[in-house]
Every structure is written in C-alpha cells, then in structure tokens.
Amino acid sequence: MKHLLATDGLDPALATAVLDTAEELKHTLLGREVRKLPTLRGRTVITLFYENSTRTRVSFEIAGKWMSADVINVSASSSSVNKGESLRDTALTLAAAGADCVIIRHPASGAAQRLSGWLAEAGTAVVNAGDGTHEHPTQALLDAATLRERLGSFEGRRIGIVGDVLHSRVARSNIHLLSALGAEVVLVAPPTLLPAGVESLPVTVSHELDAELPALDAVMMLRVQAERMHGGFFPSAREYSIAYGLNERRMKLLPEHAVVLHPGPMLRGMEIASAVADSPASAITEQVRNGVHVRMAVLYHLLASEGAAA
Q1: Known binding-site residue numbers
Q2: Which residues contact 90 (CB under 8 A, 6 or more apart)?
Q3: What are the φ and ψ backbone dihedral angles of 260, each rounded to 5 degrees?
Q4: What torsion, rounded to 10 degrees, do the Cα atoms 54, 203, 167, 50 define?
C-alpha cells in the first residue's frame, strides 16, 4: 500500500488486512503500562491540517507516537500558507525536509489525490484525513472495526446512515467500504440532503427513519454540517430533530443487538439525544478508541509492512 486516499476502489482483502492488523495491535498494547512499539522508529510522520479537527488529528498523532515515529503537526494557520504558499509548495517542502508520510485534511475535494501525485517522486506516503465532501477513509475503517467488534461480521448486516449525507465525506467512505465488505447500506435523509446520482451508489434510499429502524443492525448518525450549507436544506433544527433525530423513543424501535455510531462532533439534542449517545448501545467512545489502533494499522501498512512505500 503506497497511499490511502479513498475507500472507493479499495481492495476488500486489503481493508480486512488493515482491520486485522488494528485488532492485533489493540491486543498487543492491552494492559501495557507503556504503550510504545518500535515499529516506526526513525520514520517521520507529518499531519497537515487545513481544517479544524480533534479526533482525527489527535488519534493520528497518538498512533504515530505509540509506534515510535517522529510526529510533527503543521496547521495552515501557523504555516507559510498564511503568507500565500501553495499546497504544492508546502507539500514539496515537507517531503524535502524528510517526511515519510503526510496526513492531510483539506477543504477541497481531491486535494489528497493531487498531493500524492506531487510527492510520487519523493516516495512520500499520503493519507487522506478528509478532503472536502469527498472521502474520509480512516473514519470508515474505524467505523468498520467498531462494527466488526460489536456485530462479528458484515455479511447480511443492514447498516443505516442517517442525516446530512450530501455534505458528508464520512458517509461516502462508509458507503463504499461497508458495501464492499458485504453489508447492506441504507441511507435515510430528507431529499434535500441526498447527493445527486445517489441511485448509482450501492445503497437503499429511504426518507422515513421510523420505518427503517426495526430492520437495522446498526445506525450511524451524521453531523449536520451547517458550515457547508448555503441555503435552506430543512425548515429548522427542531423540525430536523423531529424527523431524523435519534431519540429515546426511536431507540426502542431498534433491535436489541443494534449498535449506535456517530463520527462526531455530536449535536446533542438535534441529531442524537444524550440518553442515546450515552447508552450501552452506543459505540461512540469505542469509535474514538478504535480510531487510534486503525490509524496505527494504516501507518504500519504504509511504512513498515512488506510492499510498503519506500
């Protein structure tokens, strides 16, 4: 594996190998007082974030440090980007300085792909940590790891993705990955929050949340991304919550074994009730925990395994 840019087209066998590695790393570190492995000693990992982040950035930093890599954080607000430097020049500077892997979050869809082309000659690996409304592959992998842990397998499982699908790179990555791993994906959203061409995706589409819940093995609530919205996509936050929020009443419609996910940050009271987010069915904290191990596994497959980028 040279880069991780998207789940669209990702070999299911490779995705499963990453999930297996994450599980092995999790068990290896379990109970250790010092959570440190020498796997990436001497490697330099740089996070390059042009958008705000808590979970993704912190978990990548912890993942790199737990594997003994040198991890350097670069943010647009404190870099030469503020002086007008282009993404290409920034990337080439980081590669010339010795970066073995650049993890990028950028508001433009396709930014990670462009970066991988510019850094091909240097042999620097690129991980897409979210590009515009395109993809967020490591989030989908950590969601898959959490679901596999809770449900055991993907075959025959029905996973609902609810809410602002239109603006969600998390939804896109999960659609491609979960369907490739054998799950049936159901999108539940108002028509205004579904992307054009949704009929070409390997999904079932519904506008009625209550009707879908009894047949779901897991439900993934999406954040309403107000910062990407220009215009009225729904009448009000209250009406959105009434139609698409996961509250205590709706939670009772789910099967007893069903898992509740959310990529965060949560808008409690609108997308999901606190009683649901904090319930035993919720795997939201597990998602964050698994995110560290999954990102460790991604770095391993990029930088340390046989066939990794030089």
Answers
A1: 55-56, 83, 105, 136, 139, 169, 223, 264-265
A2: 48, 74, 79, 80, 81
A3: -110, 125
A4: 40
- List binding-site positions for carbamoyl phosphate: 55-56, 105, 136, 139, 264-265
For 283-292, how does the pLDDT look when each residue is reduced to its tens digit (9 = 90+)?
Answer: 999 999 999 9
| Residues in Cβ contact with 34 at an 8 Å cutoff, skipping those fewer than 6 apart | none
- The angle formed by the CA atoms of residues 86, 89 and 95, to the nearest 5 degrees, is 140
Give helix 12-29 / helix 137-151 axis angle, nearest 10°. Answer: 70
What is the tens place of the pLDDT at every residue in 20-45? 999 999 999 988 888 999 999 999 99
Q: In the chain, what are the domains?
A: 12-136+288-303 (3.40.50.1370), 137-286 (3.40.50.1370)
* 11: amino acid identity, one letter: D
Q: What is the DSSP letter of 280?
A: T
